[in-house]
Each structure stands twice: as C-alpha cells, then as structure tokens.
Amino acid sequence: MSRLANTRISTLDLVPIRDDGNAAQALRNSLSLARHVEKLGFTRFWVAEHHNMDGIASSATAVLLGYLAGGTSSIRVGAGGIMLPNHAPLVIAEQFGTLEALYPGRIDLGLGRAPGADQFTAHALRRDRMGSADDFPRDVEELERLLGPRQPNQRVVAMPGADSNLPIWLLGSSLFSAQLAAAKGLPYAFASHFAPRYVHEAIRLYRENFRPSAVLDKPYVMLGVPLIAADDDEQAEFLATTAFQRILALLRGESLVLRPPVESMRGRWLPHEQDAVGNFFGMAVIGGPEKVRARLEILLEQTQADELIFTCDLYEHASRLRSYEILGELHGA
C-alpha cells in the first residue's frame, strides 16, 4: 500500500473571495467544501485567522467554525490557526470551550505566534493591551490551564472551557514553534504551504527534542501543502495561475481577491517576483492525478509526515471541489 493511503489528509481553507464575489459567497463555499471533503473521508477542516485582507473571509474564526461544525456531522473542524498574540487566552478558552461543548470531540485549536496582520491592524485588535510574540509560550501555558482540569481555589475559570482538555496544536513557519511543541509534547503543524524553506530542519528539531506528554507519547507532524489537481497536467498548470496571481499580489501589497486563471504569467511578473512566487510554492503539488500521486509519495518519503493538510486557491468553486475529489480518489486507491 502507498504511503499516501496510510497518511491522514485534511483541508486548510483560506476562504477566498473572488474578484466578482463577496464574503457571503466565500463563506457558503467554505461550508460546501467542508461537506465535500467530509464525504471524501478527510480527517479535519481548518480555517485560519487573517485580518485586514480583502480576499480572505475567515477573520472571525471562532464564529466561522461554529457555522462549519453546525453544517457538517463528523469531520473535525478547527483553527489553523488562532494568532494568540491578538487575544487574551481567556477569550480563546471561552470561545473554543463553547465550540467543544456544542460539538464534542470535533474541535481542534491550532495556535500561531504571528499577529496575522500588519502593525496597524494588530494595534486595532489589541488597543491598549498590546501583545507580543515573546509572550507566546506563557500565553500557551495559560490557555492550557484554562482548558484543563479545574483546580481548587482557581480564581479565573473559562466557562465553557474548563475540563474540556481541547486538543491544542502549535503551528509555525520557522523553528521557534517546532522547539516549543517538542518541549510541551504537542502536535506540530508546519506552514510549508507558504514557507517551505525551513520544513526539514523544523521537523528534525521537533522530532529530536520531543518530550512525551499526557497529550502525545510520540511526535506528530502535519505539513501544509498547496494543491492544484485537475484531470490533466495542462489544465492544472492553467488553474494554478490564479494562485500565482494571488501571491504576486501579496508580494506587491495589492488586493488578494481571486483572479481568473490566465494562459500565461509571462509579462505579468518580473524575474525576481517569479522567483519569489516559485519559492512560496516550493512544496506545491500541481498536476493531473498521476503527477499528484508521484509528488505526494516523494514528499511523504522525504518527510515521514503523519498528516498532510492541503490549501487550494482556485477561481471556480467547482475546480476546487474537483481538485479535492482527485486527492480523495488517490488517497483511497
């Protein structure tokens, strides 16, 4: 049996807004996609906290997760992730404790240490309580206490939240969170879908330094992977130009709304921009079924990942559904 068939697969939806669409359409599409991959047997469906980005509709992450969990029945739903510097741990404990109370055994809480926004938006989020990524380890510990067993004489209690023992993941695109996840014995998700440069070093650090905990007795690695699967390689390369245009816009500080695919990116980017977009998609899986299968088997052989979580930014919602359908077929083969 292939490595892919023995590896869990999941979805990270960036809830993209089209150039001719709106947030309501993007949110409905997110639920449609969650139901689709649930039927395909995917393990989990995550959305991520982003702010002040006109092409992403997942800013109110906990609210969106309630909508997604309520519209599905078995797939795990969660944050990939909540940017903890933006929030008081008590607020997150209460929000996700509420979700866990409503949908028991189906909620994941992934935590990141970046603000997920520019400095002006970060200030607007925190106002007079300006958090810092340097507070991240302490905030994670506080959140763990709030979600763990209630202690005698505990002055501050998350309700709902206390005694939920909600699964916490640490997310990262550098080496810091890999080391922290190892020290705390937590599952680790590396953001190789947008920062593949440090993936192998981060995995090595995490595994070599992992300390068993009440949560995990051995390391558990999830990798983010950009996916653009189509019925043949040529169609996949065409569809991929939507994702390329989006990252090019990100590099230029332009609108992140999804744009239609184009026949060629030639003339649309400068050489250094093409290199930067190429680096961003360094772990992307783009192609027809056989190319996708081969690429994923190599990736799994190189990383020994326990789970892959896929992003897929395509202009037509039907193309995204088909992309995940092809992945599901390969996974079940």
Automatic annotation (TrEMBL):
A GO term, aspect molecular function: oxidoreductase activity, acting on paired donors, with incorporation or reduction of molecular oxygen
UniProt xrefs under Pfam families: Bac_luciferase
Gene3D superfamilies xref list: Luciferase-like domain (3.20.20.30)
GO CC terms of this entry: cytosol
Luciferase-like domain residues: 10-303
Origin: domain of life: Bacteria
Family, per entry: To bacterial alkanal monooxygenase alpha and beta chains.
Name of the protein described by the UniProt record: Luciferase-like monooxygenase
